[in-house]
Design brief:
It contains eleven helices and ten strands. The chain is α/β, with parallel strands linked by helices. The strands form two sheets. An eight-stranded parallel beta barrel has the order 3-4-5-6-7-8-9-10, surrounded by four helices.
C-alpha cells in the first residue's frame, strides 16, 4: 500500500469531503457511509472527569505556540472544533506550546463549557534553565501560567493539566515547583486532574509509579512509531500505571501520520488494548473525524485493565 503522511491523509479526506475527484482508499468511507455514531463517554480513571472516548488533538508539528491546526486559521479550526462537538467528540487536547487556547475560546462561544473536557499542557521550558532560576521563580511561573490559561480560554477551570514532554526518569526531582502549583490549583477547584505527557521510556516508568500523577498521556500504536519504545514494552509500563490507579490517554495513535495508511489497524489495536481511557488524534478535516468514529464503532473498546 502507498504510504501517506498526515498531510497526504488530509488532502485525500478533505478532497472527498468537498466532492473532489481523485481521492480514494479508506478515506472514501467517511463520505459514503453517512454520519457516524458518537463516541461513548467514559470516566477518566478516578479523577471525576468524564470525556469522550475520542479527542481532537491540536499539536501536529506543534511548537513556538503554533501547529498545523492553528495554521489552518480561526475560521477553519473553530469549524473543525464545532464539527467534533456535533459528532459527540467533547474532549479537546490543547497546549500552551501549540497556542491553541485562544482558538478554543472562540469555539466555546458555541457550546457550554461544562459540556466539554479541556486538557492542556504546561511547557515549562519557557521558564528558563533550571540552574539559572530558583524554586520560587519556577513556582510563580507555574501559577502565572495557569492563570493565563484560564484567561486565554475564558474559563473558570481546566479539566486536566499536564507537564508537557517529560524526557528524563528523574523528572519529579526537577518539577516540584510545578507540581506544587498545579496541586494548589486543584485545591482551589481551578484544575480537576494533573499529570504528565511522556517522550521517554524512563519518564513514563516514573510516571506509572508517582503518586502525584492522575493522568498519563502516552505515545501508543502497534508499530512503535514515534514511541518511547516498542509497543509491547510500552504496554507493560501502561499496565503498571493502570494497576497503580492512573488514567491513561493515548497519543500518536497513527504515529503522527506515518501510519495513516494503516489507520484502521491502529484504531483496532488501541481499542483492543484495554489500556487507554481515551485517545487523541490531531485531525485536520471533518471527514477524518468521521472516519475514525466509524472505526471506533466497528471496534468497541475492550474492558479496561484495572
Amino acid at each position: 500500500m502507498r504510504t501517506l503522511d498526515r498531510r497526504g491523509f488530509l488532502e485525500n479526506t478533505a478532497g472527498i469531503a468537498a466532492g473532489l475527484a481523485g481521492a480514494g482508499g479508506a478515506g472514501a468511507l467517511a463520505a459514503d457511509v453517512g454520519s457516524p455514531a458518537a463516541p461513548p463517554a467514559a470516566p477518566l480513571g478516578s479523577t471525576g472527569v468524564v470525556l469522550s472516548r475520542l479527542g481532537q488533538g491540536t499539536g501536529v508539528r506543534g511548537g513556538d505556540r503554533n501547529s498545523d491546526q492553528t495554521r489552518m486559521g480561526f475560521e477553519q479550526l473553530v469549524a473543525l472544533f464545532r464539527h467534533c462537538y456535533d459528532r459527540g467528540v467533547t474532549f479537546f487536547d490543547l497546549a500552551d506550546l501549540y497556542g491553541t487556547h485562544v482558538y478554543f475560546r472562540e469555539a466555546l462561544r458555541h457550546f457550554p463549557r461544562e459540556s466539554v473536557t479541556i486538557l492542556t499542557k504546561m511547557w515549562w521550558r519557557y521558564d528558563g534553565p533550571e540552574n539559572e532560576t530558583g524554586l520560587p521563580h519556577r513556582e510563580q511561573a507555574a501559577r502565572t501560567n495557569l492563570q493565563r490559561y484560564l484567561h486565554e480560554l475564558n474559563a473558570d477551570y481546566l479539566d486536566v493539566v499536564l507537564l508537557h514532554c517529560l524526557t528524563t526518569a528523574d523528572w519529579p526531582r526537577h518539577f516540584g515547583p510545578y507540581m506544587d502549583a498545579i496541586s494548589a490549583a486543584k485545591e482551589r477547584g481551578e484544575v480537576r486532574a494533573a499529570g504528565v505527557s511522556c517522550h521517554d521510556l524512563g519518564a513514563l516508568k516514573t510516571a506509572a509509579v508517582t503518586p502525584w500523577v492522575d493522568v498519563i498521556l502516552a505515545r501508543f500504536n502497534p508499530r512503535g512509531v514515534k514511541m518511547d519504545a516498542g509497543a509491547e514494552e510500552v504496554a507493560a509500563v501502561l499496565r503498571t500505571a493502570r494497576q497503580n490507579g492512573k488514567a491513561v490517554l493515548g497519543m500518536k495513535i497513527l504515529g503522527e501520520g506515518d501510519l495513516a495508511d494503516q489507520r484502521e489497524a491502529c484504531i483496532e489495536f488501541a481499542q483492543g488494548s484495554g489500556l487507554l481511557d481515551a485517545l487523541t488524534i490531531g485531525f485536520h478535516a471533518p471527514a477524518q473525524v468521521d472516519e475514525i468514529l466509524h472505526f471506533l464503532g466497528k471496534y468497541p473498546a475492550a474492558p479496561l485493565i484495572a
